[in-house]
Amino acid sequence: MSKKKILIRIGSLRHGGAEKVLVTFLKNLPSDKYEIDLLLNLYSGRYIDEVPDWITIYYLNRGEMITTNRLQDIPQKGFRVMYQKILRTFPSLLHKFILKGKKYDVEFAAIQGLRDEVLNSPNKKSKKIIWIHSDLKKVTSYKYDERELLKFFEFDKILINSQEVFNDFLELAQTEKDKKSLERIYNPLNTKEILEKSEQSTELYTFKEKIPTFISVGTVYPAKGFDRLLKIHKQLLEEGFLHEILIIGDGYDFENIYNLREKLNVEKTVSMLGYVENPYPYVKAADYFILSSVYESFPTVLTEAVTLKKKIVSTLVPGATELLQNGELGLIVQNSEDGIYQGMKRIMTEPELGKNYQNKIANFVPPFSLENSVKKIEEIIDHL
Fold this sequence. Notes:
The relative contact order is 0.11. The chain starts with a strand and ends with a helix. The protein has 16 helices and 13 strands. The chain folds into 2 domains: 4-189 and 368-382, Rossmann fold; 192-362, Glycogen Phosphorylase B (Rossmann fold). The radius of gyration is 21 Å and the shape is globular. The protein is an alpha/beta fold. The longest helix is centred in the first third of the chain and has 16 residues, at 74-89. Strand 12 (311-315), helix 13 (320-323) and strand 13 form a beta-alpha-beta unit. Helix 9 (226-238) crosses helix 14. It has helices at residues 17-27, 74-89, 91-98, 115-119, 146-150, 163-172, 176-181, 191-197, 226-238, 254-263, 280-285, 300-307, 320-323, 337-349, 351-362, 370-382; strands at residues 4-10, 34-43, 56-62, 106-109, 127-132, 157-160, 182-184, 213-217, 244-248, 270-274, 288-291, 311-315, 331-333. The protein has a 7-stranded parallel sheet with strand order 3-2-1-4-5-6-7, with helices on both faces.
């Protein structure tokens, strides 16, 4: 039996949730069943080394992401933008010269931002899959109005990790075919690996015995709401609520948040470690896990916090209500500065609340399973 040929597309393999989910999925696929090519817009990211050897990696550009407009960076940045625009406009050139004219049975956009690139593939006979990782109605980097959202139904299968986002698409569906294209699926998560890695040391940060630490993990860009987290932190300190903030992750907004820390004069109580290969010991050691995001779909970091049985404060984003069992397993707050302020204050001043959450989460059996998620995606691919 011949192997199914699959092309998977993603921007890069930096340290974001969608990238981690994709690599976890790839590491658990059988090499004797599929022939997979992975096409990156930019060959960069810390997950590249984790891609299995049997998967071929292609790329449009190579090097680190350029997030500044420094004069010395403009020529390279401009070249990348123009080069990718040409390949988007003339996709046959990409398939002929980069992918060597190879034909695929399945083309898979591993993130919603590559929707049009996959739909415009010159290979019209291939089945098309897309994996949605955000609440598209709230994404600020691109305007997804109803007309734009309906374009997703051109895919044969739409994988969605949040029940709330799934319901949004179900309401948009205009035909039975549209409805059948939707698949609700949990992100593949290796809980065993998370628990094992959480036993390692926390040498990059010293936790203080009598001062509680709120930890937040994620790519540092506006959607994660780190700016409002720091402003609330400052307000709580001024009101006498001693605590510290630990942020793990980097991204194009890192410098802005770092500078905001100095502007608010909270350098001594806010630590920014940047990217840390293994954040789990820090999550385990912290007093509280906080998700301050403006929008998400089904936040991977929240599933990790649940796996590590943390006391959690989360903004009301898709996935939070579902994952935290409507507030039974963690404190869900309004998605605003005041909501986060009230939540942090409450979790610090009501110790019984935190104990109650931990007692419930200790006996909670997570619905997400690495084996089940991978098996379901395999079945989708096999039956296309």
